[in-house]
Write a structure and sequence with these properties.
By secondary structure, the protein is α+β, with helices and mostly antiparallel strands. The protein contains ten helices and 17 strands. The strands form four sheets. The protein has a seven-stranded mixed β-sheet with strand order 1-2-6-7-5-4-3. A hairpin with a 4-residue loop joins strand 15 and strand 16. The longest helix is centred in the first third of the chain and has 39 residues. The chain is elongated.
Length: about 375
């Protein structure tokens, strides 16, 4: 019995590992580059080489903003215009130029840096005094933004003395976006990193449990706790003669089922209620799947779910319980649920009432048949 349950448990565990490993591989395919950037940390904004600007994860104090070149808006239902992003040209690296995205919370400081920059360029002040700390990633501009970027540079007084060749060499159509690591916001990426660690640890834990046979601990504990009233040999004999329904077995004395990857055992005398549950799952009104199961309740009012693939399996389990274990209340209703919650002893009596009613019906049917004969 234990060997068979171990094989079934291991088979389930290997399938689970495969699914988790597939998810882990997909995460690594899409996010490994950003993970590496996060672990390595940002580079200094003003020390990177020009060739490293595309996709660079950087940090630094922004002390100069040369020209604003784009601004994006949203409109409220009353027509009020709200600025959502502003874009400025900034110096980067040794003598290159790119752009920075400014969110509403930084509009004021960006505006001050911009005017401070021009006061410095026109000799009104001796040094730049306003700055803002930023950590983020240089992302490629979309075509529309590139157009605004190039048009602003062509019309800017600052770039008036630059030749076209110099502009081509020094201007990079990339925008520095705050709190971005690669193409991801910092917090979501950290959550994905944490999820990756959890998935990896899960695979390790499941493998350890497979190797050590830890998934059988519940069965072993049950046998140990009930040595005075039963034996492993008796349980094994009951298991071998049990009715097999998918991964569940219903013996004369015990029911053997899986709770996730763990084989479990329950004495049938502890089961007080059994019914089917078929749930149809819908998304946007469209059926996407159906979950079939047998629901059991034990004397502690704990719910046990026996997941099934086929409706026939549900019917066979309920028929087996009804035939072999008359103390189990069969079928579902809201009244039964309320009775279990409020009047436990009354609920236990329902099974005997149910059986008495069934016996009366059977007797009536037998008498009618005898009379007609």
């Amino acid at each position: 019995m234990l060997n068979e349950l171990k094989k079934l448990s291991n088979k389930r565990a290997i399938v689970r590992i495969g699914l988790v490993a597939a998810a882990l591989i997909m995460v690594l395919i899409f996010f490994t580059g950003d993970f590496v950037k996060s672990i390595q940390g940002p580079k200094d904004l003003y020390s990177i080489n020009a060739k490293d600007i595309p996709g660079a994860y950087v940090t630094g104090e922004i002390t100069a903003m040369i020209d604003p070149f784009a601004e994006y808006y949203t409109y409220d239902s009353d027509g009020t215009k709200n600025s959502t992003e502003q874009y400025y040209i900034i110096p980067v690296g040794e003598e290159e130029y790119a752009a920075i995205e400014i969110k509403p919370e930084d509009f004021d400081i960006a505006d001050r840096i911009y005017y401070d920059t021009y006061d410095y360029l026109y000799g009104n002040i001796d040094e730049l005094t306003v700055s803002m700390k930023i950590t983020g990633t240089f992302q490629e501009m979309d075509p529309e933004m590139v157009q605004y970027f190039e048009e602003t540079i062509a019309a800017s007084d600052y770039f008036y003395d630059f030749s076209e060749e110099e502009i081509d060499k020094l201007i990079y159509p990339y925008v520095l976006k705050k709190d971005m690591i690669g193409s991801n916001d910092t917090i979501p990426l950290y959550l994905i990193m944490a999820l990756t660690v959890v998935l990896f640890l899960y695979i390790i834990i499941v493998l350890i449990k497979i190797i050590t046979g830890a998934y059988l601990n519940s069965i072993r504990k049950y046998i140990s706790n009930n040595e005075s009233s039963t034996s492993q040999e008796r349980i094994e004999a009951d298991f071998e003669n049990a009715v097999k329904v998918e991964s569940t077995r219903i013996g004369e004395t015990w029911t053997y089922y899986f709770d996730g990857l763990k084989p479990m055992i329950i004495n049938n005398s502890d089961i007080i209620w059994a019914y089917q549950e078929i749930v149809t799952h819908r998304r946007n009104g469209i059926k996407v799947g159906t979950t079939k199961s047998v629901i059991l309740y034990n004397r502690n009012k704990n719910k046990i779910t026996l997941a099934m693939k086929k409706t026939d399996s549900i019917e066979l389990i309920l028929e087996t319980y009804a035939r072999q274990h008359s103390h189990i209340v069969m079928g579902y209703s809201e009244n039964l649920k309320a009775t279990l919650k409020k009047d436990f002893e009354g609920f236990l009596r329902l099974a005997y009432q149910q059986n008495a009613s069934q016996q009366t019906e059977d007797s009536s049917t037998w008498n009618d048949s005898d009379f007609n004969a």
